[in-house]
Design brief:
The protein has helices at residues 26-35, 52-59, 75-89, 106-118, 140-149, 155-158, 166-171, 201-217, 224-232, 235-238, 276-290, 309-317, 339-351, 367-374, 379-394, 413-421, 460-464, 489-492, 494-499, 501-506, 512-515; strands at 3-8, 41-46, 65-70, 93-98, 123-127, 136-139, 180-184, 244-247, 292-297, 325-332, 356-361, 399-405, 432-435, 465-468, 473-475, 485-488. It has 525 residues and is of the alpha/beta class.
Length: 525
């Protein structure tokens, strides 16, 4: 056997079995694609999966599909089982994909296989195409070597949970040891960040809407470029449901940062604090509407100043279950972080397997510069710094000291980067360099470099983000420059409010407010 198709289906969701692609679901389309390239398909599954009945009903009568199940899949186990399957069937190489990608392209796959064989590559992949159109290919011998490396010299990466880059993420630890070939797209679609899979509601709806639009426009699905070009001009593909919610639970600050709206006395909040009761109502809607999302605390304010902050954080974490993944982001000056607070959040997050990230506003390497930027006492610099190792103790590799890059502190940028990037630093090498935002001219223009792309594309924030103020009102943009809000999530409901974003997105390039914005190309999760 020349090629063996290996599919990972351990994290399949119920969306993968919704028959929205004509009479087929995403999983069925993947199996049909697999039949074109191998007489045998090996499907990796997770023991006790909630969708196991759906899976078996699709291929129970198909003798060409073999399943391999484990309770917990790591990258190392994934590679090891791929190597074992190749050996079992005497195949020369594995054509690898996730099992929830409905638009896997037969021509691109054939081109990738042809290139792989022509140049006798050990590993081949396609680059520049939207995710979900192409598989990866790995040689049997290479897979066996990589399996061994993932248990020895590359064990640190191998022990991590399997993900969609499992093969390459392990391989790049010793990248120069492998012969790699790349099928390059004629047009680079990476900037659009399309993910054509059924792993989340946002991606599944993009796939469904693209399929419907392609049917209407009579697009040939075998033409990957026609499909990709249709996607980039279709609003219902670009904008499905929010992936990032920035919620204002406090409109108060410890400091009046020179880069905050508070310094310009333009804080858009109609009240000081959001109530926990209102927050619970909003979270319930987010959970039902988006299913998977990042919830950030707090837009336009210091979240820890809300007296019930701990309860707010725990409410986000407790939304998580088998069908919902809500991660938590906390942006803070760090002054009110305590050991007790960190430990309680960490314990709950661990029990619910929830990701929690912290961003700490540091902005300087010297206390005098910190005091100047934050309009505060110099002693607060040490308080901010001390919060980083404290949080790192409980949230390893998820604590990010942030530097707001602007003309005022540009001379300290290199020193900041060199200190925090070291693995021995309090953040263990994690940091964020944040682009300065003048909020369409409301704040002074202190940007030290123009990072905007040459060609404008539809705003990421209109496509993926929702900002919720303390009273439940939702501005169209996290830059408070629109005269009207999209509505109120507490009184009207999230679906009705979000529907009003579509017209703003359609008119984004001509919008008077958007013309002066320098944030349209920045991306949140």
């Amino acid at each position: 056997m020349k090629n063996l198709v290996v599919l990972y289906g351990g994290d399949l969701t119920s969306s993968a079995f919704e028959k929205v692609f004509g009479s087929e679901c995403a999983f069925e389309r993947v199996l049909k694609w697999a039949e074109k390239f191998s007489e045998k398909t090996v499907l990796f599954l997770k023991d006790g999966s909630s969708v196991s009945q759906n899976i078996s009903s699709v291929f129970s009568s198909n003798p060409n599909v073999e399943t391999v199940s484990h309770e917990n899949w790591t990258k190392s186990l994934f590679i090891s089982e791929t190597a074992s399957s190749l050996k079992k069937y005497g195949a020369e190489s594995a054509v690898v994909s996730y099992a929830d990608t409905p638009f896997l392209n037969e021509k691109l796959t054939a081109d990738l296989i042809e290139m792989h064989e022509k140049y006798q590559a050990e590993y081949s992949f396609a680059d520049g195409f939207p995710y979900g159109l192409t598989p990866e290919i790995i040689e049997a011998g290479t897979c066996s070597i990589l399996s061994e490396l993932s248990k020895t010299s590359l064990k640190g990466e191998g022990e991590k949970p399997v993900d969609r880059e499992a093969l390459f993420s392990v391989m790049r630890g010793d990248i120069n040891s492998f012969e790699i070939e790349t099928l390059i797209a004629d047009e680079d679609y990476r900037l659009l960040r399309f993910n054509f899979d059924a792993a989340s509601k946002i991606n599944f709806l993009s796939c469904k809407n693209l399929y419907d639009e392609a049917q209407k426009e009579k697009i040939d699905f075998s033409d990957a470029y026609a499909l990709s070009n249709l996607a980039k001009k279709t609003p219902s593909v670009m904008q499905t449901v929010p992936a990032f919610y920035n919620i204002q639970i406090s409109s108060k600050y410890n400091h009046k940062y020179c880069y905050s709206l508070e310094s310009a006395e333009k804080n858009p909040s109609p009240k000081d604090f959001m109530s926990l009761e209102d927050f619970k109502k909003i979270l319930s809607q987010i959970k039902d509407f988006s299913e998977n999302a990042v919830v950030s605390l707090s837009a336009f304010g210091e979240p820890l100043l809300n007296g019930e902050f701990l309860q707010f954080a725990l409410e986000v974490i407790n939304q998580n279950d088998e069908n919902h993944k809500i991660s938590l982001l906390i942006e803070t000056d760090g002054l009110l972080v305590t050991e007790e607070l960190a430990s309680k959040i960490a314990r709950t997050a661990e029990s619910k397997k929830t990701e929690v990230n912290w961003i700490i506003y540091v902005d300087a390497v010297e206390k005098s510069m910190y005091a100047k930027l934050h309009d505060c006492d110099e002693n607060d610099f040490e308080k901010a710094l001390s919060s980083v190792p404290l949080l790192e103790k409980y949230f390893e590799s998820h604590v990010y000291p942030q530097f707001m890059r602007m003309k005022t502190n540009e001379e300290q940028l290199e020193s900041f980067y060199r200190f925090w990037k070291e693995k021995e630093s309090p953040s263990k090498g994690e940091l964020i360099i944040q682009k300065y935002n003048s909020v369409c001219g409301i704040l002074p223009e202190l940007k030290s470099a123009d990072l905007s792309p040459v060609n404008r594309f539809p705003c990421w924030h209109l496509r993926r983000d929702m900002t919720v103020l303390a009273d439940g009102s939702v501005p169209f943009c996290f830059q408070p420059v629109f005269e009207n809000n999209a509505g109120n999530i507490l009184t009207e409901g999230i679906e009705k409010v979000w529907a009003r974003f579509s017209d703003v997105l359609k008119n984004h390039s001509e919008c008077k407010n958007c013309a002066s914005c320098d944030e349209w190309y920045t991306f949140n999760f």
